[in-house]
Write a structure and sequence with these properties.
alpha/beta; Rossmann fold; 220 residues; 2 domains; two-stranded antiparallel sheet
């Protein structure tokens, strides 16, 4: 296999973990049943609309608040205030993957391809995570597992898909990336990712994932 010339990563589950503590806090404040926010926010068709850039992240959140207020017969302003913890919760960064990313960037260009709203760039800045290329589905106008998403991300990086390694924790997306020509791998742990990258020709220092770069972290 020819050496790779760039690495493309998924975001959630690799560099950021969601514990949904903000949503639980908001549900308690609004006296909503557990799981209500997930159902109204992520399981509703409006989220797909925001995920491909038809709605902004702010518009989508406002839509969630409006539907909650209407269905639970609450004042809209009260619901908006209760949802603040949910909106402020941007997940927990994974320090070992951030350290690995910083080392990979010393060797080849890196990119992130994430199914998300237009909040991705702000979230990356919030967590101190730096990629050379940022590809959110909202900005691309198409989401995974469409082959167009992978091709557009490769174009952004200025590389053919066959020159890119790709890591994702969703098996369907890995399969789609493989069909598009990327050297795709199912993400399991930072250590296995590091080992895979080294086997693909990147001369990474031993145990990069056990050395955390403090500058890559942010105080929550």
């Amino acid at each position: 296999m020819p050496p790779i010339k760039g690495v493309l990563f998924d975001m959630n589950g690799l560099f950021r973990i969601w514990n949904n503590t903000g949503a639980a806090h908001s549900e308690a404040l609004a006296e909503l049943p557990p799981g209500t926010i997930a159902r109204y926010a992520y399981d509703h068709p409006a989220y797909r609309t925001a995920r491909v850039g038809i709605m902004t992240d702010t518009e989508w959140a406002q839509d969630v608040a409006s539907r909650l207020a209407a269905d639970f017969h609450r004042p809209l302003n009260d619901i908006r205030e209760a949802l603040v913890p949910w909106r402020q919760d941007r997940g927990t960064p994974v320090s070992t993957m951030i350290a690995l990313l910083n080392e990979v960037r010393r060797h080849v260009p890196t990119g992130v391809l994430s199914n998300c709203t237009d909040a991705l760039a702000t979230d990356l800045q919030h967590h101190g995570i730096t990629f050379d290329h940022i590809c959110s589905s909202a900005e691309l106008g198409v989401d995974k597992p469409s082959p167009h998403a992978f091709r557009l991300a490769a174009d952004r990086m200025g590389l053919p898909p066959t020159a890119l390694a790709y890591f994702d924790d969703e098996p369907t997306f890995v399969t789609a990336a493989l069909s598009t020509g990327l050297h795709a791998h199912l993400y399991r742990t930072p250590e296995r990712t590091e080992h895979t990258l080294r086997s693909m020709g990147l001369r990474l220092p031993i145990a990069t994932t056990r050395r955390v770069n403090p500058e890559a972290l942010i105080q929550e």
